[in-house]
Amino acid sequence: MLQSPTRLGYILWAKALVPNNIFAVDVLPTGKFSAYFEQVIRVNKCRKLHDVTSISDLQQFVNEDYNADYSYEEIQNLVMYADKYLNTASLNKVVNDADGGDTEILDFVASEQSVEDQVMDTIISEEISKLLGTLSDREHAVISMRFGLEGNYKMTLEEIGLMYNVTRERIRQIESKAIKKLALPAKRKRLEGIYA
Predict the structure, then answer these.
(1) How far apart are alpha carbons 175 and 165 in whole angstroms?
(2) What is the pTM of this model?
(3) How buried is 10 (Cβ within 10 angstroms: 0-12 exposed, 13-18 middle, 19+ buried)?
(4) Pseudo-torsion of CA 34, 39, 42, 45, nearest 10°?
(5) Which domains does the chain have, with CATH numbers?
(6) Four-point Cα dihedral 96, 97, 99, 103, nearest 10
(7) Handedness of CA 142, 144, 145, 148 (dihedral sign)
(8) pLDDT in tens, 64-81
(9) 8-state DSSP, 105
């Protein structure tokens, strides 16, 4: 027979008041009963879950305590998932390398960006800065803000217009003029050489 959570809470609360009881918890009921009741139930469920030793026990625990009707196969799949994906190793765990030295797992993890990619990003940033340097100050600023270059975040025409106290249409015109200047064959070749 399943006991209601309220009834179970009263029983566990009474047992917790008995010294040296297996169900005793660290905190005495000094506050509201409902807060203590919730804590006792949580502690009891954790202890019961810790005592589960097989998939059958886990199935019984889930079916009784959570009123869920999972099949043996569903529980088995969940356990296999937990074993496969939830048992993680620390990146600071020491492993023996081929030279006989001790190395942490973290040393084997590749950085997010390779050295070649970092160098290419730097070269491209420098080339873009040189190209933007050929524009007027206002065009340079509008293009940088519009496309999120040189440490700026991408901004809308409206946001840039508010900064310069002009309409977004005027900012669009400045942007269009700057892009036409940057698209000239001589300037375009500078960037094409990088990507070739």
Answers:
(1) 16
(2) 0.43
(3) middle
(4) -100
(5) 5-85 (no CATH), 115-195 (1.10.10.10)
(6) -80
(7) positive
(8) 655 566 666 766 666 666
(9) G
